């Protein structure tokens, strides 16, 4: 039977990648198998093992987690940076790209290993702790949440957020920006809007230098702080697609933003690759980049792959709704915010503010969703 097994490869093991693998593991027939920093003292809980990823799958013994980096892709073959089962080449029938995006530090780790990544976050936390003033560059979700956390954990620090626009988190209705600015005032966070920063090549030092760091804006201002957090931009993880040739004048990637061009079915837009899919942040789907739409895309991709396996057309399509977010505004305060559904005639956003958060953001629930049940807090260090 082993010789008849067909591989469905999921590249990327973060939130949406794992959701895709689990969706596939639950619906694919047995002949197919998918493969797959601010708060101190919690660093070890940020890295969740994959050991329970397929625990609830009806065919869990057919699936595998492969720890490797995707180096290049051909139509039916993926090249890895290390050997797995005696080869760096992994043949497949279907592939789902869920590689997401790279963020500036501390959003992306410099290592693939837990121990060194925990040490990296500890060093980052120590640099913040020792600083008297912190500047955050970027008014997206990362910058906003880190600013609120910083000021609540260290109320005596001077915290400043610099954003290129006056409208914070411009993907969302201006009432979210107003809500954030109100929260900044409550906490004593300085906000400088409409000012773009000239970020030096290589970024800013991690952990501080012991000397004031200059932050220069394009409009001529110079700000100084002991620690600088760069919370701007997302770079799609698509470098491993460089060897995949397009079949027409249209490129595999959208030249305007670097994301993978896809159809509403989540298949690659290039007609030569109906067996290749992209989901989550790396896909140029038109949906806002967040966990909820990403998980919905994973479900669509899984259903369409199953349809192709069964000899049917992949007709399932994503539905793009108004952007929404669950945004923390400190250790406990948070908001669930949703843009108005213009197609449904809505003019106002829907949102509410609660104080029901926790310092660790209920991370234990995420471990459990990954199939890892922790009975002793020491197990978080494994």
UniProtKB/TrEMBL annotation:
One of its GO terms (cellular component) is cytoplasm. It holds the Pfam family Pyr_redox_2. It comes from Cytospora leucostoma. This is FAD/NAD(P)-binding domain-containing protein. Residues 65-301 form the FAD/NAD(P)-binding domain. GO terms for molecular function: electron-transferring-flavoprotein dehydrogenase activity; flavin adenine dinucleotide binding. InterPro entries: FAD/NAD-bd_sf (IPR036188), FAD/NAD-binding_dom (IPR023753).
């Amino acid at each position: 039977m082993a010789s008849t097994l067909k591989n469905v490869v999921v590249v990327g093991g973060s939130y949406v990648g794992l959701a895709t693998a689990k969706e596939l593991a639950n619906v694919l027939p047995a002949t197919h198998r998918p493969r797959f920093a601010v708060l101190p003292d919690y660093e070890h809980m940020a890295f969740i093992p994959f050991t329970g990823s397929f625990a609830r799958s009806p065919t869990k013994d057919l699936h595998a987690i492969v720890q490797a980096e995707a180096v290049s892709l051909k139509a039916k073959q993926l090249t890895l940076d290390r050997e797995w089962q005696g080869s760096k080449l992994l043949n497949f029938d279907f592939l789902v790209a869920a590689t997401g995006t790279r963020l500036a530090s501390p959003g992306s780790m410099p290592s693939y290993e837990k121990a060194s990544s925990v040490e990296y976050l500890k060093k980052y936390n120590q640099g913040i702790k020792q600083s008297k003033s912190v500047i955050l560059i970027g008014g997206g979700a990362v910058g906003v949440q880190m600013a609120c956390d910083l000021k609540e954990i260290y109320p005596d620090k001077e915290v400043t957020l610099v954003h290129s626009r006056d409208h914070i988190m411009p993907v969302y209705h201006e009432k979210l920006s107003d809500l954030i600015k109100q929260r900044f005032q409550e906490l004593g966070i300085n906000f400088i809007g409409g000012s773009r920063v000239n970020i030096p090549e290589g970024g800013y030092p991690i952990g501080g230098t012991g000397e004031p760091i200059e932050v220069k804006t394009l409009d001529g201002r110079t700000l100084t702080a002991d620690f600088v957090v760069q919370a701007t931009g997302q770079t799609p993880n698509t470098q491993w697609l460089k060897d995949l040739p397009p079949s027409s004048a249209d490129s595999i990637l959208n030249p305007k933003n670097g994301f993978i061009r896809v159809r509403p079915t989540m298949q690659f837009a290039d007609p030569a690759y109906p067996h290749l899919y992209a989901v989550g942040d790396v896909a140029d789907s038109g949906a806002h980049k967040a966990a909820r739409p990403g998980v919905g895309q994973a479900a669509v991709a899984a259903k369409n792959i199953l349809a192709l396996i069964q000899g049917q057309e992949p007709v399932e399509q994503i539905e793009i709704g108004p952007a929404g977010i669950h945004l923390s505004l400190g250790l406990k305060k948070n908001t669930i915010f949703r843009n108005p559904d213009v197609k449904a005639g809505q003019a106002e956003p829907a949102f509410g503010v609660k104080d029901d958060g926790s310092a660790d953001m209920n991370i234990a629930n995420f471990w459990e969703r990954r199939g890892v049940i922790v009975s002793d807090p020491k197990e978080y260090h494994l």
